Amino acid sequence: QMFLTHVHADDACVTARGFHHFEGVSKLHNIEFSGCKNLEDEAIDVLVQNCGPTLRSIELSDCRHITPAGLRHLGKCKSLTQLVLTDLPHLTFVDWEVLMEDLKKKLPKECKI
Known about the structure:
The protein is α/β, with parallel strands linked by helices. The chain is 29% helix and 18% strand.
């Protein structure tokens, strides 16, 4: 028996529609999306709904359509130990401060952001 535990996508054309295929994936621990220009808030919501309880590490980099609203869904990932967010153009300094305060309250204390 094999399980999907890691997803690493660079410059991939992934959308919320594709994320519905994660339904039933019960061992996904690490995801990394870099340069995924079509990745948007709805996809993050769908991912968290399907895999949030098992995710330990999330890295989002250079995903131009991700906004603070989408990132707030990550607060539901109660097993998260690492969260890396870089080069997200919709995230202003003020947004970052508010988001970090919110996520630090919701995520496990041992999660490194």
